[in-house]
Write a structure and sequence with these properties.
about 270 residues; mainly alpha; Serine Threonine Protein Phosphatase 5, Tetratricopeptide repeat; 15 helices; about 75% helix; globular
C-alpha cells in the first residue's frame, strides 16, 4: 500500500514538472497558471485515491483520523477493491467486527469479478478471524481449512490455522499443520511460536523449551512467546523465571488479534503469589 502511495506521488511530480516546463515557454505567469490548473485537475480526478493516501499516511499516528479518511473514500463507492479490503482488515484489527464483516461480505458479493484469487482468499481468511474473535472457533476453523484445501498457502494461513487447531485442543491436527508451516517459513515468529506451543500442549516440554529459547533470542515484538514461555517455566516449577517472562509479556502492547490479554497475564501473576 505504501509503495502505491509513493508511485502515485512520483507520477504527479513528474507530470507537474513536464507541464510546468512546457508552460514556462509562455513566461512565469503561464507556468504558475498551468501548475495550479494541473493540481486542481489532479485533485478532482483522483480525489478518492488522495483520500486513501491521506488515510494511510495518517493511520499509524491517529487511528480515528485515518479511519475517517478511509470512510470518506469508501462512501464514494469508488474506492479500489484492494484498498477496500485493506480498510476492512484495519477495522477488524481495531475490533470493529460488525463493520469489517459487512464490508467484506459486500465486497465478496458485489465485486467478486474484481478480486484476484489471492485477494478473494485473503478476504475469506479475514472473515474467519472475525468468526474466531466472535467466539465461533468451529466456523473459523472450517473457513480457514477450506482456504487451505484450495491449495492456498501463505504465512498468514499457516499462522491462523495452526493456532486455531491448538486453541480447539486438536493438538495432533495442529502439529500436522505447524510442521508443514515450519517447512514453508521457519523465519516467521508467529509460526515458530505456534510450533513451540504445540509441543508444550503435547507434553514435550524439552522440545518446546528448545524452540522457545531460539525464538526468544530473536526478540519477537508480540506478547505470546513471552507468555507461553512463562507458562512452560511455571510447569517446570520455576516460578521466579515464569514471573519474569509474564512481566516481560506485559511490556508488549495488547492488540485486538492477540491470543492472550494483559488481564489474563495479570491473573497468572496473581496465582503465582509472592
Amino acid at each position: 500500500m505504501k509503495q502505491g502511495c509513493f508511485l502515485f506521488i512520483l507520477w504527479v511530480i513528474i507530470l507537474a514538472v513536464a507541464v510546468v516546463n512546457s508552460a514556462l515557454k509562455f513566461g512565469i505567469f503561464g507556468g504558475v497558471a498551468a501548475f495550479v490548473l494541473l493540481m486542481a485537475l489532479i485533485v478532482f480526478l483522483y480525489r478518492n485515491s488522495i483520500r486513501v493516501i491521506i488515510a494511510q499516511m495518517t493511520f499509524d499516528k491517529d487511528h480515528q483520523k485515518g479511519f475517517m479518511w478511509f470512510e470518506k473514500a469508501y462512501k464514494t463507492g469508488k474506492m479500489k477493491t484492494h484498498s477496500a479490503l485493506f480498510y476492512a482488515y484495519l477495522l477488524l484489527r481495531d475490533g470493529k467486527l460488525q463493520q469489517s464483516e459487512k464490508m467484506i461480505n459486500d465486497i465478496l458479493m458485489e465485486r467478486r469479478a474484481d478480486l484476484s484469487r489471492q485477494d478473494y482468499l485473503n478476504a475469506k481468511l479475514n472473515r474467519a478471524l472475525i468468526k474466531w474473535k466472535a467466539a465461533d472457533i468451529d466456523a473459523a476453523i472450517e473457513m480457514v481449512q477450506e482456504i487451505y484445501d484450495e491449495n492456498f498457502r501463505t504465512t498468514a494461513v499457516y499462522g491462523v490455522l495452526g493456532y486455531l487447531y491448538i486453541e480447539k485442543g486438536e493438538y495432533e491436527k495442529a502439529m500436522e499443520i505447524n510442521k508443514e508451516a515450519v517447512e514453508y517459513n521457519s523465519d516467521d515468529n508467529i509460526i515458530m511460536d505456534n510450533y513451540a506451543l504445540n509441543f508444550l500442549c503435547l507434553g514435550d516440554v524439552n522440545k518446546s523449551q528448545e524452540l522457545y529459547l531460539a525464538l526468544l533470542e530473536k526478540e519477537p515484538d508480540f506478547i505470546e512467546p513471552y507468555y507461553n514461555y512463562g507458562t512452560l517455566l511455571e510447569k517446570r516449577g520455576d516460578k521466579e523465571k515464569a514471573r519474569e517472562y509474564y512481566n516481560k509479556a506485559l511490556t508488549y502492547r495488547e492488540k485486538f488479534l492477540s491470543t492472550v490479554s494483559h488481564e489474563e497475564i495479570r491473573n497468572r501473576l496473581d496465582q503465582l503469589g509472592d
